[in-house]
Input
Amino acid sequence: MSGSTAEFYLDIFRRGVRVDIRPSDLKIDYPSTLPATIREEIGVRRQELDRHLRRLKGLSLEQNDIALSRKASRELSRLRFDRHCLVLIRPGDLSRAIFFPHAQSGLVAPIEKLSRLFPEGQAIFAFQAIGLNDERDALGSIEEIAAFYVAQMKIVKPDSPYFLGGWSLGGHIAFEMARQITADGGDVGLLAILDSRLPLPQFAERDRWLAFYRYASFSEQTSGLDIFDHGHPFWRLDQQGRLAFILSVLQTSSDIVFPRNTTFDSLKRHFAYLNGVCDAQGKYRPQRYPGPITFFRADNCPEAVVARWAELTSGAFQTIDIPGNHLLLMEDQNRGVVTERLVASLERAHQASATKLAMRVTQDIAPLRC
Output
């Protein structure tokens, strides 16, 4: 077996190997059917597996990371951007920063997890939805959300090119941001859409509650209680009762998107935001975009979705296969491979942008030599 640490971990996970992080070492459970050769390779690569998983879990913080974070804090302290909305996830070179709009949850947590295996020095920002941490009303349309996020992004990084990525609904917001940037004469170095689905689904009331429950539990089952069953008592509760039930889930779930200290009032505000963003999603009609798109396709993504994104661009369209279905591609076992492929795309975009800039400078100074 060969390949990167992320690919190796994904492969052994699919073979039934389970790895738990302990304070000083890894606890590894091997299925009885696992070949001896793979056991031996796990033994050889144990140290790199330990480092990989600790970074995935956010348990490893290098001295260089700390120094970069302090430097970035000093640089950003002079800028007046909306800190409730635009969040620095990973410090680094602001000229090469990548910006991730939030998914439907409105939170930065999935991007924070995705960012952990990015290389040192790569600045990463994520957008959190307006109104979640303050008393403002949520923005009413995808176009409005994108315009506000572009304005905030330009405070941190005034000049093109811009590097954008987004998972799920975040892909639609990133697409609209890229479209508005190019319409205004700017340049987008990378638009990475992580398995966002088109056409956009229309969310009925039950779908909205199910999506909200997923954010709280990040799974379809939590503590044996499955509200995906139409007969579950959850559906006989009023809104207050449903929110109280979901709040109780936060105390029992092991892998959640919402913070554990979420209050009933903030949960209620978050559900109001979700209803608004579902309405905005239902109204959004993406317009044609002239730049290139890099589409990251999960295992269960239909061909029709890929074809629809390809129709929306007059630029180059690239598809990159990523492991896991739409929800599970952000889980630990898949996230490392997703990050590796995203990092490779970003590095190619940085190189292409540097080449384009060098050619532009050459063209500008050529007349001066005559």
Notes: The mean pLDDT is 89.
